[in-house]
Automatic annotation (TrEMBL):
Residues of the ABC transmembrane type-1 domain: 77-265
Name by which UniProt lists this protein: ABC transporter permease
CDD domains, alphabetized: TM_PBP2 (cd06261)
Family indicated by similarity: Belongs to the binding-protein-dependent transport system permease family.
Pfam families: BPD_transp_1
Species of the source: Candidatus Haliotispira prima
Membrane topology: Multi-pass membrane protein
Subcellular location: Cell membrane
Keywords: Cell membrane, Membrane, Transmembrane, Transmembrane helix, Transport
TM region(s), chain numbering: 21-39, 81-103, 115-135, 141-159, 196-221, 241-264
Gene3D superfamilies: MetI-like (1.10.3720.10)
Length: 267
C-alpha cells in the first residue's frame, strides 16, 4: 500500500498529472450523473424524438433512433474504462512477473518467456486483436483477452531489461541470507514501480484506442451496445444532419487517451 499512498500525496503530482486526473474525473462524473439523475436505457429507442436538441431531460440530445446520447456516451465511456482497467491489471501482472523472473533467474525462464514474447511481436498488434474479434464478434471477454495478450509483452521487455541491470545491487542482501521476496521488495520494486506506472498509463490509453479502432471497423462490440468506435460508425452517416453526434465519441476518445498520457510522470 505504501507506493499507492505515496502516489496519492498531493505534492507528488505535477501540473500535467493534475490535468490528466481532472479529465478522468470529468468523464467519470458524466457517467455518475447519468446513473444517478437520469438512468436512461442506452438502447431504448423513440423514433418520434430523433435528433432532438439538448434539453433538461436530455442534456446531450438524442441520436437517429431517438436514443439518449448521454446514456449511450456514458455507457461507452464506462466500457472503455473497464477495458483499460482489466487489460492493464492482467497484462501488468503477467508482464512484470515474467520480466522479473526472466531478468533475475535467466536460464530456461528467460528463454521460454522471450520465445513467447517474440511470437506475439511477430504479428502486428491490431491485426491480432482483429483476428480474435472476428472469431467471436461482439464478445467483450475475447477483446479483453486479445488486448491483454498483446500488452503484456511491453511490460515484459522493459521489466526484464531493468531487472537485469538491478541484479548486481542485490548481491549483498543475498550474501546476508535474505530471501527472494525481501530482495524483490527491498531492491527491485522501488526501482521498477515508476516504470510500471508509466507502462500502465500508456497501456490504458492504448487499450481504449484498440477497443475504439476495432469498433470503428465493426469487428468489436455489436449494436445495440454503446461503444466509442461503434458510435463513430453509427453517427458518421449523419454528419451533415447532426455533426455534433460524431464529435461526442471522438471527443471522449481524445479526452480518455489524453488523460492517461498526461498522468505519466515527466522525467
Amino acid at each position: 500500500m505504501k507506493p499507492i499512498t505515496n502516489l496519492l500525496k498531493l505534492g507528488s503530482f505535477s501540473g500535467s498529472q493534475w490535468v490528466g486526473l481532472g479529465l478522468l474525473t470529468l468523464l467519470l462524473s458524466l457517467v455518475a450523473i447519468n446513473a444517478l439523475f437520469y438512468a436512461h436505457d442506452p438502447a431504448l429507442q423513440n423514433l418520434e424524438n430523433t435528433f432532438a436538441s439538448a434539453s433538461i431531460a436530455e442534456p446531450l440530445g438524442t441520436d437517429h433512433f431517438g436514443r439518449s446520447n448521454l446514456a449511450r456516451l456514458s455507457s461507452a465511456i464506462l466500457k472503455s474504462l473497464l477495458m483499460a482497467l482489466f487489460t492493464v491489471a492482467t497484462s501488468a501482472l503477467l508482464g512484470v512477473s515474467a520480466g522479473v523472473l526472466a531478468g533475475w533467474k535467466a536460464g530456461w525462464w528467460d528463454r521460454c518467456c522471450s520465445f513467447a514474447a517474440n511470437i506475439i511481436l511477430a504479428l502486428p498488434g491490431l491485426i491480432l486483436v482483429l483476428l480474435f474479434g472476428a472469431l467471436r464478434p461482439g464478445s467483450f471477454i475475447i477483446l479483453y483477452f486479445a488486448i491483454s495478450l498483446i500488452q503484456w509483452v511491453e511490460y515484459f521487455r522493459v521489466i526484464r531489461s531493468r531487472t537485469r541491470a538491478l541484479i548486481p545491487s542485490t548481491e549483498a542482501s543475498r550474501l546476508y541470507g535474505f530471501g527472494d521476496w525481501y530482495i524483490f521488495r527491498r531492491h527491485l520494486w522501488p526501482e521498477l514501480r515508476s516504470d510500471i506506472f508509466t507502462l500502465a498509463c500508456f497501456g490504458a490509453g492504448n487499450a481504449i484506442l484498440a477497443l475504439a479502432s476495432i469498433g470503428f471497423l465493426y469487428v468489436g462490440l455489436k449494436p445495440p451496445e454503446a461503444e466509442l468506435g461503434l458510435l463513430m460508425v453509427e453517427h458518421l452517416k449523419y454528419i451533415s444532419q447532426a455533426p455534433w453526434l460524431l464529435l461526442l465519441p471522438i471527443g471522449a476518445v481524445l479526452l480518455l487517451v489524453g488523460s492517461f498520457h498526461l498522468l505519466v510522470r515527466s522525467a
